[in-house]
Specification:
The chain has helices at 4-12, 23-62. The protein is an all-alpha fold and 74 residues long. 0% of the residues are buried.
Amino acid sequence: MLSIFQSFALNLFLYFPEDKREYIPAAITMAVFTVFAIITFRIIIYISKREERKTKDLEDHYNPANGQEPTKHS
């Protein structure tokens, strides 16, 4: 069973305004942050792929036999 204090603490963060226009600023803020999060995520993926290409080029430059079958020397 929940005590009165625990019940009050759980309901403290629940607020449903009578005037639904109060949701508009929160929705706009959430939309802006969501767009920025998606943009940031795409930038991180782009930079990661660019770094991966650079690393692959360096590997190919310093180890040209990479990815090829090793030749047997008798």
